[in-house]
Amino acid sequence: MIVAAGANYVFQPDGKFSGGRFGGGSTSNVTVGSQRSTGGIYSVNGYGLTLRSAAGQEQRLFFARYDQRLIYIGGSAYTPDR
Questions:
Q1: How many of the other CB atoms lie within 10 Å of CB of 23?
Q2: Which of 7, 8, 24, 27 has the lowest tally of Cβ within 10 angstroms?
Q3: Over the chain, what is the mean pLDDT?
Q4: For residues 56 and 27, what is the distance between their CA atoms, to the nearest angstrom?
Q5: Domain residue spans of the chain
Q6: What percent of the chain has pLDDT over 90?
């Protein structure tokens, strides 16, 4: 299970991103970890966003764009910095 929490992302048109968090967990034995990401590459396919960190970790998240001012990544809403 992959978890993303409380993070700032910067997405570039060339497919690179900076910021974010990568984490993990287990359902049989409760184990949780978190690592701040310095960035990597991303791709969007339909309603999915795949983030691959520079360290090789990968997470797949739900992605939806509501309008120019609001997008959803995972279970969180984000607005662009102006």
A1: 18
A2: 27
A3: 76
A4: 23
A5: 9-78
A6: 20
